[in-house]
Design goal:
The chain is built from 3 helices and 31 strands. The chain is mainly β and 398 residues long. The strands form 4 sheets. The protein has an 11-stranded parallel beta sheet. Residues 1-29, 382-391 and 394-398 have low confidence and may be disordered.
Length: 398
Amino acid sequence: MKKRLLITSVVAGLVAAVGVPLAVMALPTGPSCTVDDSGGADYLTIQAAVSDPVCSTIKVFAGNYTENVIISRSLTLKGAKAGVSVVGRILPSAAESNVTSSGDSQVFDVRAMNVTIDGFAVSNPGHGLGILVKTAGNGTVIKNNIVEGIGGSSYSPNTVGIYLERGPDNVKIEKNRISNIQSGPSAQGILVGDSTSTDPAENVRIINNEIKNISSTKGAYGIIVNNGATSASSPNTSYATVSILGNAIHDLTGGWDTAIGLEGSTPRAIVKNNTISNLLGVTPAKVAVHFEDNPFFFLANVSRNSLDVGSAAAGIYVDPALTSTYVGLKATGTCNWWGKADGPQGIPPAVASGIGSLVSLGVDFNPWLKSSDLSGKCGNDDHHDDNNDHHVDRENDN
């Protein structure tokens, strides 16, 4: 008999012996429960442990788990690699807590606040979604996970590695590796959505992730933010406040490639210290940072990034519908590396005389970095940008 079932039996026995009503009997609070697919732990499946309200921290041993885990209460899930960097971890691996969907659904489905998912290997071949955080998932932390192998080249719906649906707040997506996300219409590493949302997504932090090998016959996206996407002339009541810091995004292949798409209302978005490379799709629809349907584009700060995507791709691109509506307003795009020391080249009618990556109208790109050192001297200044957040995020939350 598993330990959790034994505890339940003991409690029931005490109730019968002393006549204390179960409703007023205090159960243990906050214990750590264990899951092992081969036995020898409290539970055989992750869902069984999640469904036990006694378990607040759940340790999942290395093994293979085929299930759709629905999380409807606050808890911490720790895989075999909790707190371990994704660098050097290679799949398949018997040392991982490998979780795969048991049907055409997401692997983890977060429906409650203050949930942490740490140290898993998540895959969902032939299906569309890895980890889903619904509106109620405020305070969710997703870290140190490998999300790899979602969808497939012949999979027809959209695919997403990590999806924040309709406005959860204070979500942190940190130090994950998201790769091999494939579909026909649209493949997305991280999606902060949706265009029809009426709930703002506030204080979303996407930090120090590697996102790579995203492919689609149509759109391939590293990170896309479109919560409350709307036309340029009619701002929605919904929006997203996002910080996108220190991510490495590379090897996107689609009919169009967008590494970071700010394609909904993103007032005061911060995009810093990211490295973007290898946009491999169809020319010229290749963009490192893209503003579309975003009436707050001119409040964004896109600085200290490597936008070395070649002279046939745009480092920063603002949709002409925005520049024609908000004439003269510009996104802050200073102190970026454009792949060449003389800076970006302009997409007509934008004026830029360099030979680096392209830049559109609606971007204040001058001064720029003279080298790929993202903490280096910007332009002709002898000092670093005092407003730059060089450290990105150095809190030790493992």
